[in-house]
């Protein structure tokens, strides 16, 4: 996995020196601008019109793509396979969900101005301590990055310090998200148990059901993905990024060279978890619900597959994979619901066996073949 | 005796003569047998019987006695004189039966009890009919019949001879009503009739049924029967029933003696009585006798409480071991594929599921042979899951050796595929696999301790599978080669081991064991497409906790995780217990990344 690095010059050229990344950023910006325009300006019925449904759908894909970028940052560049990244995604989502729950105010079914419906239903009379302050947007947004980050910091520090690697790390992250899922299923946790958080009304005073808010959320997702991508690019093209790759390729050798491997790992793992948390926070208002099934280990593995399908170690490939797989999922579950699990299963097998570098790898291979043919 | 088709008093006279003759013959035989020297009149009269003033000493009277007035409460007064059934002089059987028609509930109870103490040929049938609410009384004269509904009419039978007695409209009759309490009395009376059964089991069951509702009559009958009882178990049961009876009705000394006698008895019944006694006698009672009684009862209650705690712990331990044995079964296949071969097989859960479905299919193929189907399902599931495993290895895993994370993803794809395949073939509905008789119910060790049979069988089965697997790994050439390859693949190949073929076989072995686990699981839960998913994380945990590549480690870790979970559960509830165990595991793996029993040496450093 050799790659040329433009480690000199201005930051932007360094980050976007890679053709794929440049194309990705351009396409992403174009998408973020064009789709809202097509939704708001183009007349319904015209060829250019994009329905509200499609906007929400693509918005959801964008948050998935951000999750995939976060995963690729640790898996593709540092060799850390996390099978529990939806735990961070879910925690970010729950933080956002708590804020949205508090915004409902007395418009809930039970009309309690402070307590969310499910707490009234459970006969609680006071708000649990961790719900305080979540009605303030800034606090909630801080929690979106802080809670997943803290969990990742503690978990990563414990794991990497004792040199839990590879398969073992994958398994304990899976156990972590599984434990969280079980915990959030409990009503006593104060997160709505089985049903999770839902029935959201508005965000920052704007109704969630209005077209304008939807488009704004879409744009926020696009911008979020862009910023997340740029942060990730910044990291992997920096000097530290090269250390990360060294750790991926030869951990012991890097350690013996004098680098504190576990610090690098904890640090990148925490940043990745924060990005995943942001993705979850953008996801929740667009789908309107967050429940414990977001934590399921299966969902985590699916996210890993997006990265593998797109091509790990490229960042934009991960985002591409998230889009492609989820588009296929939406289409197949609608058209042939029986087929989808077969297709997904076959996809897993085919990608690992025949496309070890994913779609991105396939594309560059094709390009190379074409170039080789041209001179002759 | 229905050969004597005579009527009225003559019939009764003949019956009594015959009965007397039999009684003489029986007692003579008994006297010869154990030379106790009892008088041939079989007059082993109990003190109660002698002290009952209005009953003439019956054995001596040769003439048929005139019975007391029918319907009189005294008709039910205890007049039992012997354990042998045919001592019925002095008792107006027919009159007593006739009195049922207009009796109130307490009277009915006494009548039932009296009938059981003076049975005739059809007493059992009569009681059965009574319990089934088939007794009716004619409105006009209150005469009692056994009735069989037939359209708007009753087919009537005489309650004493059970001869057909014509047919009449249901409107002319009132049912002789029963209630729950009375039916219990009837049950006890029916049991009393069985006291003289040939079969010791029947007698034991009879004593136990009687002891649930023991009145004076029945207690007398039991006491009387005790003299002739030869079976130790039955004797013990009688003593116990009588002692419990004493706890209720005896005087202070009798109660004390009963507590003394019951001091080894932990049953719920004794416990309740003693507890009750503690409540009834105030703690600061002035009466010295009462105080002594209370102290004795309190001591026993304390003792039983102690035993209860002990058995509660034992039970929790058993549930823990049972859960552990399931974890071991689920994990042991993975211990081979993951532990020995280093392959992460996410489809492991689905191989378990396939095994469970194999059990289901076997039962469908062999309807009516639940147990046989289940036994045959074990090898069948081994073959099915094993073949699927070999297929997975040959088609996918073999290209990915040395790339564990890729293997993980690919096999996860296989697991999705298999799940959907099962959904398509068997529908997404849960199927239930029937349990054979020897796997259902409780195995009772004593009054406080009983284990569920299916869990016990699965525990034993799990240990057997483990032992077999250890044998395969230690004693067969396959096992030797597997160990060699797991230690040093290149060297093993250099020594002439065909590693490719061996990989397939090893993977098949691990998968086949997963299938066997599925058969066992089918006895505990419903079989559905998601069965495997719920076990995959647990299985990995067990293997990693035990130390990868170490079958014994898997056994220890599975059992200890099971026990740990079950001991946390009472305090926290099942879900929280599971979360706590998971957190414990995560922390443990971080302390000791290579599990409880890590592999040592150069080979362990590879992965």
From TrEMBL, chain A:
Topology with respect to the bilayer: Multi-pass membrane protein
InterPro entries found in the cross-reference section: ABC_transp_permease, ABC_transptr_urea_perm_UrtC, LivM-like
Pfam families found in the cross-reference section: BPD_transp_2
Gene Ontology terms, MF aspect: branched-chain amino acid transmembrane transporter activity
Transmembrane feature ranges: 20-42, 54-77, 83-101, 113-131, 137-160, 167-185, 215-236, 263-284, 339-363
Keywords per UniProt: Cell membrane, Membrane, Transmembrane, Transmembrane helix
Location (main, coarse): membrane
Protein localization: Cell inner membrane
Annotated GO CC locations: plasma membrane
Keyword Zinc: no
Matches recorded under CDD domains: TM_PBP1_LivM_like
Family annotation (PANTHER family): HIGH-AFFINITY BRANCHED-CHAIN AMINO ACID TRANSPORT SYSTEM PERMEASE (PTHR30482), SLR1201 PROTEIN (PTHR30482:SF4)
UniProt protein name: ABC transporter permease protein
Species the sequence originates in: Salinisphaera shabanensis E1L3A
From TrEMBL, chain B:
Transmembrane regions: 317-344, 351-366, 372-392, 404-422, 448-473, 502-520, 540-561, 573-590
Membrane topology classification: Multi-pass membrane protein
Alphabetic keyword roster: Amino-acid transport, Cell membrane, Membrane, Signal, Transmembrane, Transmembrane helix, Transport
GO MF term list: transmembrane transporter activity
Gene Ontology terms: biological process: amino acid transport
Biased composition (Polar residues): 48-63
Annotated compartments: Cell inner membrane
Signal peptide segment: 1-31
Major subcellular location class: membrane
Keyword DNA-binding belongs to the record: no
Region feature (Disordered): 32-90
InterPro entries: ABC_transp_permease, ABC_UrtB_bac, BCAA_transport_permease
GO annotation, cellular component aspect: plasma membrane
Family of the protein in this entry: Belongs to the binding-protein-dependent transport system permease family. LivHM subfamily.
PANTHER family: ABC TRANSPORTER PERMEASE PROTEIN, BRANCHED-CHAIN AMINO ACID TRANSPORT SYSTEM PERMEASE PROTEIN LIVH
Protein name: Permease of ABC transporter protein
């Amino acid at each position: 996995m050799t790659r040329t690095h433009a480690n000199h010059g201005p930051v932007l050229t360094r980050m976007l020196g890679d053709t794929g990344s440049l194309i990705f950023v351009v396409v992403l910006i174009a998408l973020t601008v064009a789709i809202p325009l097509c939704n708001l300006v183009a007349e319904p019925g015209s060829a250019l019109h994009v329905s509200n449904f499609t906007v929400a759908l693509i918005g959801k894909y964008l948050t998935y793509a951000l999750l995939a970028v976060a995963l690729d940052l640790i898996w593709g560049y540092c060799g850390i396979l996390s099978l529990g990244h939806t735990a961070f995604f879910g925690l970010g989502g729950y933080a956002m969900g708590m804020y949205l729950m508090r915004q409902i105010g007395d418009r809930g079914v039970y009309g309690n101005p402070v307590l969310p419906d499910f707490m009234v239903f459970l006969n609680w009379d006071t708000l649990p301590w961790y719900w305080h302050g979540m009605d303030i947007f800034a606090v909630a947004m801080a929690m979106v990055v802080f809670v997943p980050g803290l969990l990742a910091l503690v978990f990563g520090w414990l794991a990497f310090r004792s040199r839990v690697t590879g398969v073992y790390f994958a398994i304990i992250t899976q156990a972590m998200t599984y434990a969280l899922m079980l915990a959030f299923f409990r009503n006593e946790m104060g997160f709505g148990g089985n049903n999770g958080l839902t029935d959201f009304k508005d965000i920052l005073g704007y109704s969630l059901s209005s077209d304008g808010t939807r488009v704004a959320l879409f744009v926020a997702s696009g911008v979020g993905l862009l910023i997340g991508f740029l942060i990730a690019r910044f990291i992997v093209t920096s000097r530290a990024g090269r250390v990360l790759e060294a750790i991926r390729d030869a951990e012991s050798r890097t350690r013996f060279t004098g680098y504190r491997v576990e610090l690098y790992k904890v640090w990148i793992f925490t940043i990745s978890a924060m990005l995943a948390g942001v993705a979850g926070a953008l996801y929740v208002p667009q789908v309107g619900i967050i429940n414990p099934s977001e934590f399921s280990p299966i969902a985590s593995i699916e996210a890993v597959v997006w990265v593998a399908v797109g091509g790990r170690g490229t960042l934009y490939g991960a985002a591409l994979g998230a889009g492609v797989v989820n588009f296929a999922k939406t289409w197949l579950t609608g058209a042939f619901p029986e087929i989808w699990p077969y297709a997904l299963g076959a996809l897993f097998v085919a990608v690992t066996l025949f496309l070890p570098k994913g779609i991105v790898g396939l594309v560059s291979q094709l390009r190379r073949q074409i170039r080789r043919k041209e001179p002759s | 005796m229905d050969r004597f088709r005579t009527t009225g008093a003559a019939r009764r006279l003949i019956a009594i003569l015959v009965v007397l003759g039999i009684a003489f013959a029986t007692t003579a035989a008994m006297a010869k047998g154990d030379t106790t020297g009892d008088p041939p009149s079989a007059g082993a009269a109990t003190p109660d019987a002698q002290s009952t003033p209005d009953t003439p000493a019956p054995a001596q009277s040769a003439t048929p006695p005139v019975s007391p007035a029918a319907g009189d409460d005294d008709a039910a007064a205890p007049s039992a004189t012997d354990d042998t059934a045919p001592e019925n002089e002095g008792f107006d059987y027919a009159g007593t039966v006739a009195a049922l028609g207009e009796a109130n509930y307490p009277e009915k109870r006494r009548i039932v009890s009296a009938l059981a103490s003076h049975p005739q040929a059809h007493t059992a049938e009569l009681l059965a009919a009574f319990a089934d609410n088939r007794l009716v009384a004619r409105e006009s004269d209150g005469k009692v019949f056994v009735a069989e509904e037939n359209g708007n009419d009753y087919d009537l039978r005489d309650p004493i001879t059970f001869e057909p007695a014509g047919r009449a409209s249901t409107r002319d009759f009132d049912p002789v009503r029963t209630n729950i309490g009375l039916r219990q009395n009837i049950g006890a009376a029916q049991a009393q009739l069985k006291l003289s059964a040939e079969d010791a089991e029947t007698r034991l069951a009879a004593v136990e049924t009687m002891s649930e509702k023991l009145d004076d009559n029945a207690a007398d009958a039991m006491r009387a029967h005790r003299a002739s009882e030869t079976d130790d178990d039955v004797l013990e049961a009688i003593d116990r029933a009588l002692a419990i009876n004493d706890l209720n009705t005896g005087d202070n000394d009798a109660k004390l003696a009963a507590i003394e006698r019951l001091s080894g008895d932990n049953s719920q019944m004794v416990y309740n009585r003693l507890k009750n006694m503690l409540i009834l006698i105030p703690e600061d009672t002035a009466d010295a006798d009462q105080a002594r009684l209370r102290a004795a009862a309190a001591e026993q209650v304390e003792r039983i409480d102690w035993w209860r705690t002990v058995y509660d712990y034992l039970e929790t331990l058993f549930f823990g071991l049972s859960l552990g044995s399931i974890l071991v079964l689920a994990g042991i296949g993975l211990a081979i594929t993951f532990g020995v071969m280093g392959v992460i097989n996410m489809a492991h859960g689905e191989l378990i599921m396939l095994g469970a479905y194999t059990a289901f299919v076997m039962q469908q193929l062999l309807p009516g042979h639940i147990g046989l189907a289940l036994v045959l399902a074990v090898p069948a599931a081994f073959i099915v899951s094993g073949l699927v495993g070999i297929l997975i290895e040959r088609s996918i895993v073999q290209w990915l050796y040395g790339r564990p994370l890729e293997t993980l993803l690919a096999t996860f794809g296989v697991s999705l595929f298999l799940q959907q395949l099962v959904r398509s073939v068997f529908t997404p509905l849960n199927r239930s696999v029937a349990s054979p008789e020897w796997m259902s119910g409780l195995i009772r060790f004593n009054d406080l301790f009983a284990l569920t049979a299916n869990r016990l069988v699965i525990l034993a089965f799990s240990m057997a599978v483990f032992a077999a697997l250890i044998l395969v790994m230690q004693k067969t050439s396959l096992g030797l080669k597997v160990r060699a390859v797991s230690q040093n693949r290149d060297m093993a190949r250099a020594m002439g081991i065909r590693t490719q073929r061996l990989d397939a076989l090893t993977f098949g072995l691990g998968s086949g064991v997963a299938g066997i686990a599925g058969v066992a699981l089918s006895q505990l839960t419903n079989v559905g497409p998601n069965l495997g998913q719920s076990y995959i994380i647990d299985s990995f945990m067990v293997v990693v906790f035990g130390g990868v590549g170490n079958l014994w480690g898997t056994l220890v870790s599975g059992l200890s995780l099971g026990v740990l979970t079950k001991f946390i559960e009472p305090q926290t509830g099942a879900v929280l217990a599971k979360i706590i165990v998971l957190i414990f595991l995560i922390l443990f793996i971080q302390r000791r990344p290579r599990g409880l029993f890590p592999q040592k040496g150069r080979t362990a450093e590879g992965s």
